[in-house]
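#help-structures

NK: newbie question. if I give both the sequence and a SMILES, will the prediction place the ligand too? trying with zinc ion
OV: yes, paste both and it writes out the complex. here, I ran yours:
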Amino acid sequence: MPNDNYNSSPLEWVEAYLAENTLQAHCIKGLLATQGIDAKLHGEALMGAVGEIPIDACYIKLMVKVEDKEVTETVLKHYEQALKNNPLDWFCHQCGENNATTFDLCWHCGHDPLHTTL
Ligand SMILES: [Zn+2]
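OV: that's the protein plus ligand as structure tokens.
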């Protein structure tokens, strides 16, 4: 069924989120990865030299494919809601679970966030 005539560009990337820093950008990227969504970070290259530029000096654009936009928005809504309820909570890079700030390891999969290589 060739239906890509009107579907101009299924691989087009759209901006899904504006992250405040590298950490947040990677956190969301990891979250999306647990949902099978491939995200790209724009602006990160500017911060290549860690330590030279303040971590909050620029924003990082999170890009996703158009086809993933809807799921991405759901994931982000969940993320922002949890963030609002518990600002110090953290998300597991491995399984995407939301962890209370008092947990050192992910309660769900036992992942240690401090040993994550960004
Ligand atoms: Zn986990």
